[in-house]
Amino acid sequence: MTPDDIDQDKLAAEWAAALDDQDDKPASQNDIDALFDQPSGGGGGGGGGDDALAAEWASALADEEETSIKSERNQEALSRQSAKAKFKDLTQEAKAQRPEAIRRDLDFILDIPLDVSAELGRTKLLINELLQLGQGSVIELNKLAGEPLEIYVNGKLVARGEAVVINEKFGVRLTDIISPIERVKQLA
How far apart are CA 75 and CA 95, in angstroms? Predict the structure, then answer.
């Protein structure tokens, strides 16, 4: 070990002792100056630059600690100001009879048009395959013969059914209506 190594170890020990003595209080400038004014012992010239560097480090550490203490105090103040949200129980209001005005508002939305479609099946094609289609071409779908059609309202699955013919037009006889819970699961 060289004398410089001993000085570094001694300096590190002094720093550790000083930090332990602080008890989470920021070091004052006098404390920092007192640490660097102590003789370092053991000679080894050219220590002036090291002292200046150590002083800069000490100043930076003191500033950082002061900033962290201010931040902790601000957090404590904010946590004291915040309160848990309190929500009113609306169960009884939801079960109560709705006034006529609300019923009229509901009647207003009953006239909104919706897109309803029945889907027999799906498939994926490459652009090249699509361009090769012509009259008489057959496209294989993902559903088997006899499987129910899917009924979509505004792009959302709401029911399943079977194809029927009514006055020379296609129609769908509903066999299964999707529950609201299942509809919500499909959104996820």
Answer: 43
